[in-house]
Amino acid sequence: MRALVIEDEKKLSDFIKKGLTQEGLSVDTAYTAREAAKQSLNGVYDIILLDVNLPDRDGFSVLKALREEGDTTPVIMLTARGSVDDKVRGLEAGANDYLTKPFAFRELIARVRVLLRAPQAPTDVLTAGNLVFDVRARKVTRGTKPVALTNKELALLEVLMRSAGRPVSRVVLWEHAWEGSFEVDSNVLDVHVSRLRRKIAAGGKEELIQTVHGIGYKIEAGPGGK
């Protein structure tokens, strides 16, 4: 799937692009409305992330023009403006969603998935092979053996199991278990995943948590050893 990020803050644009790419999307970027118009000629996008405060034209008018041209691509507006009036203006212009800066990346991903109709796991009992996680009871078993985990490890395991078989980016894992921005140079996440991997491996023959180089981690969805 293809995404277009129209955001004039390069650091934020690069951050969003990296995160969406790690989630499996092909991402193009534009820093102005003029660049966005050129990018739209390159093909059809599945979703557009549109900043309100562009240097050459405001996002509201960009969105209005898209809709008047018959473009029905889902659009999430990104802005530092958090007033109700601005949100209403964006929605009335044709936005599908409206996200106020600063935002947690996992919230952005959740909203993107909803608009792309990505499947969401509705159950409180998650399984991956012979690993079972009762989210509500906060109990984990591998085969017949209970697995004692810390709160951080439970948080990491939940997001991995809800995306079983698919890579989960380091940014999403971090934001699910810790507050604050992802610390790129920190090995805290790797240490916790290593401990989690070791604990759940004790109850089965197969290594369920895999490292996906350049992205993050994933947990295998197939049968686990007993």
Provide structural commentary.
The protein is of the alpha/beta class and 226 residues long. The chain has 2 domains: 115 residues, Response regulator (Rossmann fold); 95 residues, Arc Repressor Mutant, subunit A, CATH 1.10.10. The protein has 8 helices and 12 strands. It has a 5-stranded parallel sheet, sandwiched between helices. Strands 6-7-8-9 form a 4-stranded antiparallel sheet, covered by helices on one side. The protein has a 3-stranded antiparallel sheet with strand order 10-12-11. β7 and β8 form a beta hairpin. α6 crosses α8. It is elongated, with a radius of gyration of 20 Å. The protein starts with a strand and ends in a 7-residue tail after the last strand. 32% of the residues are buried.
Structural class: alpha/beta
Q: Which outline best applies?
A: elongated
**Major sheet, described briefly?**
5 strands, parallel
Average pLDDT level? 84
Annotated CATH architecture of the largest domain: 3-Layer(aba) Sandwich
Counted by DSSP, the helix tally is 8
- Major beta sheet, strand line-up: 2-1-3-4-5
In sequence order, what are the helices and strands, one letter per element? EHEHEHEHEHEEEEHEHHEE
The fraction of residues assigned to DSSP E strands is 15-25%
- Can you tell me the number of structural domains? 2
- CATH class assignment of the largest domain: Alpha Beta
Q: Any idea of the CATH topology of the largest domain?
A: Rossmann fold
Q: What name goes with the CATH superfamily of the largest domain?
A: Response regulator
DSSP helix fraction = 25-40%
Number of strands: 12
Parts with pLDDT < 50 across at least 5 consecutive residues: none
- Ends distance: 37 Å
Roughly how many Å is the radius of gyration? 20 Å
